[in-house]
Write a structure and sequence with these properties.
Blueprint: E1 24-32, E2 38-43, E3 50-51, E4 54-56, H1 64-76, E5 78-90, E6 105-117, E7 129-133, H2 134-140, H3 145-153
Parallel strand pairs: 1-6
Antiparallel strand pairs: 1-4, 2-3, 2-7, 5-6
């Protein structure tokens, strides 16, 4: 079974990559519909907010894009193709908001085209997913500047 079809989500940070300055390297996706009019958001693991699929880039993954596509599968249940590198985004949290369980991060986002939505995926039990228009997604992501910046860098129709 390929990594993208594995029904077990990775947990822990024993394989986590870090930058030279100590930031946790996080890879994520901005999943767009084929016509680029909608973005697929997922519920946070506690189901309290809507977010973009993202997670740690691990040492056994050759590229951040590989990590981003794995996270898209685990968290959103989508098979996707990277269509654009959206670049790096710095974590804007204050020192008081950073902790050992939530260290400073350096984000790398990719715009992806969703090829297939699975009916079952590793984190389905703890995350819903929903297609949203740009205005709706912008409103849902307003409390997460790094996610909003990734959305703004994408080619979604505004």
């Amino acid at each position: 079974m390929s990594q993208q079809q594995c029904m077990t989500a990775r947990t822990g940070r024993d394989k986590q990559r870090y930058s030279e300055s100590g930031e946790r390297l996080v890879a994520g996706v901005v999943p767009l519909s084929v016509d680029k009019t909608r973005v697929l958001l997922i519920q946070s693991s506690r189901r309290t907010a809507w977010v973009l699929p993202k997670g740690g880039w691990e040492t056994d993954e050759a590229t951040a894009a590989d990590a981003a596509k794995r996270e898209a599968w685990e968290e959103a249940g989508i098979h996707c193709v990277v269509t654009r590198d959206l670049g790096k985004i710095l974590d804007t949290r204050t020192p008081k908001e950073v902790s050992s369980s939530a260290p400073k991060a350096l984000y790398q986002f990719y715009q992806v085209r969703v090829e297939k939505e699975a009916t079952e995926w590793p984190e389905k039990h703890k995350r819903g997913r929903q297609w949203m228009s740009y205005p709706d997604a912008k409103e849902k992501l307003k409390g997460r500047p790094e996610l909003l910046q990734a959305l703004e860098r994408s080619e979604i129709v505004k």
